[in-house]
Structure formats: C-alpha cells, structure tokens
Amino acid sequence: MKKKNKLLDSSLSKIDNIFEEILQDLPSELTDLAKECGAFCRGRQIKNVPQLLQVVLLYCGLDFSLRETAGILTLSGTTISDQAIKERLDGCRVWLSLVLRKMLPGLPLEIEGQIGRRWLLIDGSTVQVPGARGTSYRIHLSWDWVKQEIVEIQITDAKTGESLKLYEIVAGDIVTADRGYCRFEDCHYVLNQAGEIVIRYAAHQLTLVDEEGGKIDLAGQLWETEGNLYTRRVRMKKDAQERQLYLHCFRLPPEKAAQARRKKKAKAKADKRVLRKETLEYAEWTMILTSFEPTEISAAEIGKMYRLRWQIEIVIKRLKSVIEIDKLRSKIKSQLSEVYLLGKSIYALLIAKRAGEFKEIKEVEWRVWQLISEQLRPIITQVSNWKKEYVEQQYLRQLRGKMGNL
Predict the structure, then answer these.
(1) Boundaries of domain holding 66
(2) Looking at CB atoms within 10 Å, which of 97, 210, 241, 341 has the fewest?
C-alpha cells in the first residue's frame, strides 16, 4: 500500500511539473477559486487542482470521451471511473466561468485620443447539440484587431440573441460589427459608453432621419447617385433620444451587385414574399453607419476599416475547425454542456495567447493555432508520464468497462 502511495505521489509531482507551462498562462488564483466554488474539496481520486484542470482539458479541449479521459488518468497511475469523471466535471461550471473571466484582458484604465485605443471586432456563432434542429447555445466573441487577441468570449443559451449590450465597452473603443447589430439600442449603448461605431447599415432594422427629422428616401437617392460613393449626415432617433451619425454607401462592382440581387430574389422566392424595389437597390451597395466625422476619418478609410471585419469571422472559423468548439456531445441544458463550452473556451484562450507571441504574424494564421494545439496535446495527456505496464492491466480494462459513455 505504501509503495502505491509513493507511486501516486511521484506521478502527481510530475503532473505539477509538466503542467507548470500551462499554469503560467492561467490566473494565479486558480486553486483558490476551485476551492471557493466547491470544484475541488478533497484530494481523493483527483488529487489536486492541476489534475482537475487536466481532466477539464482532456474532455473539453481535446475532446476525449469520459471513459477515455478516465483511461488516460489510469495510465498515469490514477484509477477512476468515467462516472466519477462526469461528477467532477459537473461541479466545475462556476469555477471555469470565473477562470475564463479572469483570463480575459482587463479594461484599460484610461484611453486618450487615438493612442492605446481598442478596435473591437464583434460577432457571434451558434452551437447545436447532436440531433438538434435549431440553435442550442450561442458563442459571443469580441476580438481586438490592434492586439490580435480575444477580449471577451461568452456562452449563452439560444434565447439570448446577438447584441452589443453583452460586451463591456470603455471610452474610446471602436466597435465594428455586421448588420445584425444595427439596432438603435445597440448603437446607442456603445455611444453612451463614449465608444465609436463602424457598423453595416440595415435599413429594415434602423430608420434614419435627416437634420429636420424627416424620413430619408435612401433608395431613391442611391438610385440617382452616379458615382461609387454616397455620403450624408443622418440621425437615428427613438422617442426623446437621438444621435447624429454619418452614412457611407459604397457601390459594389457590377458582377458582385448582380450576384447580390440574385441572392435577394432567391431568398424572397423561398420565403414566398414580394421583393421590394428598394431592397434590390440596397443590394447594390455596402452601407456603413459610423459615429466618426468625415474630417476625422474619411469615408474611404471607414470602408477599409469595415472590410477588416473578416478577421473575426476567421477567428470563429478557427475555433470551429482547429479546436472544434462547436463539437458538443452532451444533452441540451445539461450541466456538462455548459462545462464543455466553458472548458473549450479556456482551451481556445490558451492557444490564442500563445499565437499572439508570434508578433511577426499580423493576420490570424490557422496553421499557427493548429501547431500550438499539437504542442499542447502531449502536455495535457501527460504522455511522458504514462506507465507501459498500465496499458494492458488498467487502461484497456477501463475502456472495456460496462459503464455508460458521453
């Protein structure tokens, strides 16, 4: 018995040493938070917080099943069942939520002028549980283009729609988002925080008026525009609240405009509705709403700023393709589903932080993320700590177990 305890103590010491590289990228309060939240109470089968973190990253980060996770711990000298793994993971939701929040960069204390200003690209994505016909959960993401890092990542249920009000905005922030966020409440929220907006305009979601409060015949004015740029000062108004903004409209090249019109017609046909004439006119333009004065940032520069929004779409694609953040295996509304998404988000931040060390790579390069994920894999699995004799004696026996698997 004493010999076995010494073996376990030796294995756990190696876990701490190997995990030190990952722990330095996590909050220093990791252990204290785990104990305060009840995620870790007593060291029985899971002996310490680093080993609990290993369980989280095996199941959530590397997508091992509960039984495979139990089997990998067995290879390092810890005998545990897949049911016990599930019970430990179920208790991690609050802990992981706090860890995720502390891993994100804090808001700057002061931003003056253009120096140190954050440029936030905001977007969201959906997650479906196996067999689901609709959305099960939503991922909300904010990406700082200047620092090339994730600023916020949130997991919500399907009922929580995409909104700029979900994010912390500080004075001086530049918020860039697509037309789904072009609503009075969202734009007003950012401007109230002394932020600036560069948002694709959606005429059906936000009505704009002229200086006298009259309705603007935007479709008619675009129809009469001969050049490739239409700019004007506008106001968005709701009840007693109103804001002065600028609308920049950029005409699409003929082939792209024709393609956009075809898509509008096809969608209207599929939805069995009549396509309005102004909708076809809007399809020929990229319309961008901004709070910047043209004397501060020109229309051409605003257009360039919006076109860089593709970066957050790339980030979301990397989250899905490289680390499969949407590979949800649990049932909807189960404790394990939320734990999985939180753990996967922490894993994503670990990769993103290391990718940020490649300063010479300005764009989000998926190969770097893939390379880093491969680098982290042996650290998380503790492959260097596996006991060869445990493969036949315990690991295979673990995988042949009769207990269920998720």
Answers:
(1) 2-101+366-399
(2) 241
